[in-house]
Design brief:
Length: 1128
């Protein structure tokens, strides 16, 4: 072996391909991203027999002559070919299995050059596809060929297996595998492939005429990946595109702090690294994260820590079970840098692409929820567990706000952020003005569309709505404080630090710029051309693709050309076709006479004459004959005759060509303007991402406040958790105190829930009968504490919640045969995680500890756990049926005995579901078995066995401890309600003045009859076309006036103003309707005022659409809510 200098032969390889598969050990690319080497640093050299690798220049030096060599395809792409071979082995369909047999894994396409159509010679379509495939070797290649997208080799097999397509040419064995889809079915095919985890590279043809016997040029137009759809051509579409949640590339490693999870979003060009995670918290994150690719770091191998043990193939543990169910690859080196390099390889990114670190410091944040905690309270949907997410938001609040709330629950915020969220929610609860609709646009969608310059006018209008909503928050004196409070939560969610002044300034600039270019709703200066002699469908199809998208001022020249061309076309058709039509209509003949009409040939984008039997048998110079002589058969774009009945003239064809060219020119100008605007806004992408996320948070909090008010939930007092230096007791926070706690899955507003008071300053040791409510109490306390530290409302009458550093709930465990673990082993694994993670600032809730093993030793383990938690000084509850724990010599200082109450009714012991002091050793096991239908004989025999062994213990039962608590009165809190000042529009002022004038006398009479109520000034509140009523209207009676776009009025009354407005706006043409509303005393008064307004407003010159409703009869309701509303 000997060294070679750079004068030796050099073999160049593509810049984005990794050489790691050639090395032992692999080369690490950490210097490419976060740690840069100076230009003077020596190249990194790795020795191998007969080769020298110099990675600074990315060149491969070989022990050979000075001639330039080529690395064989098999060596360069070996790792990718093996990857595709593994995918082929997963094919199950008979048709795809037959195709796989005809593959040859000697190239990336898997094409056998010995079969028909298998040539890879330079210049062939197959060779061209291979060049594209080499750029993205692990993506399916779809190549546009005429009206189809074709795939060959391994890609064709995937299309047949996962997209349900049939192979070209059937299953003939003498040809290479080929498959494809029509152009119109591309979206469906891409959805099928990405749904199964594949990425797709789409190659388009360059449109336009080509020279004879020459192949069309092709280019890579884009990619479709899981979580990132194909957007090419969207800029010219008149529709929106649904964007799925982005799917990150995830890397998992282990360090001295614990587990580390690195997530990289290629679409957003961002990454985050969360370190110090427990195994349970990491698995929770994996359960909620649909990742595109999963990479496991070699630090996980040969690691024995807790339950996670990785061998050569991996074994045991919660994390192993989660990862083993997915496809993953190993990687080594620096976990962040090398994962970023993997992303560059996967997506074929150019050099110079940088990723922004959006990791937010987690020193003061509570620990992420463990998997057991998240599933047992329904933060992660789990069968049989009440879903917490479903009760936090209204049913009509879906999508991004739900995802934000879920992520906030799984990753509770720091105290400062939680306090800001709670304060914003309080302000939203009391706001009296109308609020924006909070337009939600996914950040990934914004980035991808602007980056690819495929943002169409619809998306620009949405972006402007986002910016205008932010500006509305800023300009309103009531809403600006909410905006200020949302700045820090948005920073945490996006990793972008933006100050308020910059945000507002940039929003104004971008909104104005979009308004200068984009044609907004209501602008009517771009009507579709219309002429009596030409079918309207023709102009609609030809002009709707570009009119109404950008402002006319930017297209005056193009508009003039199109108008002139349309007029010339009308003249040509009038002169050449109408005389023939008139001649045919003037001819009276029996059946079989001449027929003819001017029709739109949609497929050919032309207007032609269609007729038969119109040529005269004898030419007599009558009207129309000259025009008939000018007719010639209509031809398609390929020069073929369209049909026997279609005709045109030279003049019409010239006019059509001129009109189509003018339209294409206008469309090109529109696309140029739209793409130019996308390029401009790319520099503002951080502001747009920040603004869109801020509105997502605002919508989530507004929905939560609305639902919380409906359910009569309250805001807790959130306190910082402090520990004294000399004693393990709480200071400042004074423990956790919840009054009137109800299970979150019950609707307290409808009654029926048993409420409990929890005053917790240390560890509770809880006992109680079966079905007595122990598990429900633990689940309710866990949910209330979690909602409190997130800044949300909770189901209670009042609450003081310390800002815990972790909340851990263990309720039950199941065995895991796949891991070879019993249910007791799983339970001990979770207990180990809880004990090692708990601090004096934690909340620990354990239900029926050690129930899966032998009683005596299980009791002792339970006692030791109780001692440990008591010595840690955390708050929490340990519930148990192991009553022997009370006979153990426990060394506890602060633990308190609590029980779930029971009482004797008709000589039967029944649970009360109330928390009381003391110990309850009655299990009600026999009664529970009897209620569940266990045979009576079996229960009687069990009672006999029990008495024979445990008779003495049963005589010692202290029934005095089976007490009960009195029911609690539910306190309903109300917030202030006021009216918003009029905006100044003439119609709004007129309607408001008329409504107040009509209603004042009736309200004055009412106040005179109710001396205990102080008269209030009447003012209507305006809800604009893109606004919604505040949460303070929930449950309140109101009279409203809908101001339709046609200036007609609709009068109504409701106790659900938000729902009624949503219903009205869902009707056609009513999307931009505005509303004026007035909060009144009860439904009876609302009905009276509704009738009064319907009967009197027409006499003041207003047009009503529901005059008939003025004849209805009023009805009464309770005065309690009305008095409360008027008192406010």
């Amino acid at each position: 072996m000997y060294w070679l200098t750079p004068k030796n032969a050099v073999v160049l390889i593509p810049r984005w391909r990794s050489l790691s598969f050639l090395l032992i050990p692999p080369f690490h690319h950490q210097n490419r991203r976060l740690f840069s080497l100076s230009s003077s640093a020596p190249p990194l050299i790795v020795r191998r027999p007969e080769r020298v690798f110099c990675f600074k220049e990315r060149k491969l030096y070989t022990k050979s002559s000075k001639k330039q060599l080529k690395i064989s395809v098999e060596e360069k792409d070996y790792a990718h070919i093996i990857w595709w071979k593994e995918r082929m082995q997963m094919c199950k369909k008979p048709s795809s299995v037959m195709l796989v047999k005809r593959l040859s894994f000697s190239n990336l396409l898997g094409v056998d050059t010995n079969l028909k159509n298998g040539s890879l010679k330079e210049g062939t379509l197959n060779w061209e596809m291979l060049q594209f495939k080499s750029k993205y070797p692990r993506e399916i290649l779809l190549c546009r060929v005429g009206e189809f997208y074709e795939a060959i080799g391994v890609d064709a097999c995937i299309l047949v297996e996962y997209a349900g397509l049939n192979p070209f040419g059937g299953l003939r064995s003498d040809s290479i595998p080929r498959a494809g889809c029509p152009v119109m079915n591309l979206r469906q095919t891409l959805d099928d492939l990405t749904r199964n985890g594949f990425s797709v590279c789409i190659v388009e043809e360059v449109q336009g005429p080509t020279q004879a016997r020459t192949r069309k040029s092709r280019f890579i137009s884009g990619h479709a990946r899981p979580g990132s759809p194909y957007v090419f051509g969207l800029v010219g579409d008149d529709c929106d595109l649904d964007f799925p949640d982005p799917m990150p590339v995830v890397g998992i490693s282990r360090s001295a702090k614990g587990y580390c999870m690195v997530s990289v979003l290629e679409t957003m060009k961002t990454y985050s690294a969360e370190d110090g995670l427990t195994e349970e918290a990491l698995v929770t994150k994996l359960r909620t994260c649909r990742c595109h690719h999963l990479f496991l770091h070699t630090s996980l191998r040969h690691n024995s820590s807790g339950t996670c043990r990785w061998g050569e193939f991996g074994e045991g543990g919660l994390l192993w079970g989660e990862c083993n169910a997915r496809q993953f690859e190993w990687f080594d080196g620096n976990p962040v840098n090398d994962l970023l390099y993997k992303v560059e390889e996967l997506y074929g990114l150019e050099d110079g692409i940088s990723f922004r670190n959006v990791t937010v410091a987690s020193e003061n944040r509570p620990s992420p929820l463990h998997l057991g905690t998240a599933t047992q309270i329904g933060a992660l949907p789990t069968e049989g567990i009440p879903c917490l997410l479903k009760v936090l938001l209204p049913s009509n609040c879906t999508g991004l706000p739900v995802m934000y709330v879920r992520d906030l629950l799984l990753n509770p915020p720091a105290y400062e952020i939680a306090s800001a969220i709670q304060e914003a929610c309080k302000l939203m609860s009391n706001v009296t003005c109308s609020i924006p609709e909070f337009t939600c646009v996914p950040s990934a969608k914004l980035v991808k569309l602007l980056e690819s310059r495929e943002t169409n006018h619809i998306e620009f209008c949405k972006i402007k709505s986002v910016l205008d909503d932010v500006l509305q928050l800023y300009t309103n004196s009531e809403l600006i404080e909410i905006l200020k409070l949302l700045m820090n939560p948005t920073w945490v969610a996006t990793g972008l630090k933006v100050d308020l002044d910059t945000l507002v300034s940039e929003c104004k600039t971008v909104s104005c710029r979009i308004g200068e270019i984009i044609s907004l709703d209501g602008e009517k200066d771009q009507r579709i051309s219309s002429y009596a002699s030409i079918p309207n469908d023709f102009f609609e199809d030809m002009e709707s693709f570009w009119k109404g998208r950008v402002k006319r001022i930017h297209l005056e020249e193009e508009f003039a050309e199109v108008d002139e061309a349309a007029k010339a076309l009308c003249v040509a058709i009038t002169e050449d076709f109408l005389p023939i039509i008139s001649r045919i209509k003037a001819t009276t003949a029996p059946l079989g006479g001449p027929k003819g009409e001017i029709l739109y040939a949609r497929e050919h984008e032309s207007v032609w004459f269609k007729g038969k039997r119109f040529v005269p048998s004898v030419w007599a110079n009558t009207p129309g004959e000259e025009q008939i002589k000018q007719l010639r058969p209509a031809m398609d774009s390929k020069g073929k005759r369209v049909g026997e009945e279609w005709f045109t003239t030279v003049k019409v064809e010239n006019a059509l060509t001129r009109y189509v060219e003018a339209g294409n020119k206008a469309k090109s100008k529109v696309l140029e303007l739209l793409r130019g605007l996308s390029a401009e806004l790319q520099t503002k992408i951080n502001i747009l991402v920040f603004a869109s996320m801020l509105l997502v948070i605002a919508k989530a909090l507004n929905g939560h406040v609305s639902e919380g008010r409906r359910r009569k939930w309250v805001f807790p007092t959130l306190t910082q958790h402090q520990i004294s230096e000399d004693k393990d007791i709480l200071h400042g926070a004074e423990g956790m105190k919840i009054t009137g706690l109800s299970p979150y899955w019950f609707d307290a507003a409808q009654g029926g829930a048993v409420r409990n008071n929890v005053d917790m300053k240390s560890l509770f040791l809880l006992t109680g009968p079966n079905g007595g409510g122990k598990s429900s109490l633990l689940r309710s306390i866990c949910a209330a504490a979690l909602l409190g530290i997130c800044g949300f409302m909770l189901p209670a009458e009042s609450a003081i919640i310390p800002h815990f550093d972790s909340i851990m709930l263990h309720i039950k465990s199941y065995d895991s045969p796949a891991d070879g673990k019993s249910s007791f082993q799983i339970e001990m694994s979770e207990i180990r995680s809880i004990i090692t993670s708990a601090t004096s600032k934690s909340l620990v809730l354990i239900d029926e500890i050690c129930r899966g093993t032998e009683t005596a030793k299980g009791t002792c383990i339970a006692g030791s756990v109780i001692e440990t938690l008591d010595s840690i000084g955390c708050l929490g509850i340990v519930s148990t049926h192991l009553h022997g724990v009370f006979d153990l010599p426990l060394r506890t200082k602060n633990a308190v005995f609590k029980a779930m109450g029971a009482e004797r009714i008709n000589n039967q012991t029944m649970p009360t579901w109330k928390l009381i002091d003391g110990i309850c050793k009655e299990s009600l096991a026999f009664e529970t078995a009897q209620r569940e239908g266990v045979p009576e004989a079996l229960i009687q025999r069990a009672a006999e066995l029990y008495l024979s062994v445990y008779a003495q213990d049963s005589l010692k039962t202290d029934e005095s401890k089976l007490g009960s608590c009195s029911s609690q009165n539910v306190v309903h809190k109300s917030s202030k309600v006021a009216d918003r000042q009029s905006r100044g529009e003439t119609l709004y002022n007129e309607v408001e003045n008329a409504v107040i004038s009509i209603c004042e006398k009736r309200m004055s009479d009412y106040y005179k009859k109710n001396d205990d109520l102080e008269p209030k000034a009447m003012r209507c509140v305006l809800v604009g076309s893109k606004e919604q009523p505040p949460p303070s209207t929930i449950g309140a009676s109101s009279v409203y006036v809908m101001i339709r776009p046609d200036r007609k009025l609709y009068i109504g009354e409701t106790d659900d103003l938000e729902g009624r407005i949503r219903t009205h706006r869902s009707k056609e043409g009513m999307q931009n309707a505005s509303f004026l509303y007035l909060l009144v005393h009860g439904k009876s008064m609302a009905c009276q005022l509704e009738t009064l307004l319907i009967n009197q407003l027409p006499s003041r010159g207003f047009h009503l659409t529901n005059l008939a409703d003025g004849k209805h009869r009023n009805f009464g309701t309770s005065d309690l809510l009305g008095k409360e509303m008027l008192a406010r």
